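Help wanted!
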Amino acid sequence: MTLILNRRTLLFGAAATLSGCDGLARNEQARELLFSAENFHKWAQRSLMARGALAREFRPDQISPFFRPNGTANPNTPEYRALWRSGFADWRLKLSGLVGRPLSLSLAQLHSLPHREQITRHDCVEGWSAIGKWRGVPLSLVLDAARMSDKARYLVFKCADFMGDGRPYYESIDMVDAFHPQTILAFALNDQPLRVANGAPLRLRVERQLGYKHAKYLMEIEAVDTLSGIGGGKGGYWEDRANYDWYAGI
Amino acid sequence: MDSSPASPSITAPLVLRHRWQVRLWHWLNAGLLYILFTSGLGIFNAHPRLYWGHYGANFDKPWLTLERFGGWITLPAHYDLAMSRHWHLAAAPLFAFALLAYMLWAWFSRHIGRDLAFRRGELAPRHVWQDIADHARLRFPTGQAALRYNVLQKASYVLVIFIALPLLIFTGLTMSPGMNAAWPWLVDLFGGRQSARSIHFIAAFLLAAFFLVHLSMVLLAGPANELRSIITGRYRLPEARP
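Answered by r_m:
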């Protein structure tokens, strides 16, 4: 009897405490305090790592047998279907915003630039990981070619896919990650042209952050000095919609 | 009755059992570990499969697949990965630095040397066996002996403080792609991010098991006296057995 009562009390206590936490999380100031942990993690990680510290690169025999795609499996808009049908011959990557020389790059032009190849681990915010071999153009080369302004603080990646709520996917990174040697615009996965499910024709790899930062189906990169005014203002689709952290290093 | 805790008489002296640093850390942990465990289960629910090695996703072979944990034990009570992560990542650094501060205090105040370190002879098989037998019969120490941790207590506290909790912190950090770049040796230490995630999960449940035993011991040893001692620090010595 005593034990049952105790267990009941415990369960009740557990439930009450948890709903107390949920209640607290609805308070605006408490939320802000809770969300500010992101700033701590960003500061701590950036302080602990060299600016150019590399994400782990793996051996070819460590590659996942199948690289799990996630998020949009196919943008499936008339525009995207048309691009796909022509083998992305008419696709262009636009570089806009705070740049001295706006660019419009074809896949062939990207192929003709120097490449980087890296076997890295993709870590989804959900907890799973997949290792794949990526090939692409270092983003820094493209940014230099576009003569990016000193005023630019963020790069916004605009994608061809629309999410369930009809809003387009987008993401953003700052200059620390933009100029990181492993940050590439990838057009190949495991020695094959990027498949539609993995973000064809071009996706971002930003290896020191979680998967949702690695925008797929890239259409445009805009250099900006602030993220406000873009989408919901938090720097990414999931950041706007579900309060995901903008800094996804952990 | 041998199996009941010696009832402290009103005249028995109140003694200082736990210093304020111990009490503060204890209650901080009670709150933080509660948040970390429940929000951790919320995060786990996003992908309730565990793997060994560097990678692991839906097409790879898990060593453990579970149903999602119910809302009664997750934070938030409904599935919300972002909120679970906010709770977890806000509580984790507080917990880690509190542990570090506690370890430093425990070392310099000689709490470790005086109260947690094993004494000569304590680890002798006969002594350990005696302690296990006493625990099994719920025969708790009385008199001055009640002021010292017995060998099973010491062993479990040492395992929790110096093995389980640091393991949870470091496997947690290993799951961070940023920390992998900063401290690549961590991911080597645990044999990959998915191994670290598995160890993190196992250690969390070992800690939950410790919590249940810890709580039952408090209930069995006299909850009022034990609770007072961890809140006010004052403990009424159980009278020595004749």
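OP: Thanks! One thing I noticed: Strands of chain B lie at 14-16, 49-50, 64-65, 234-236.
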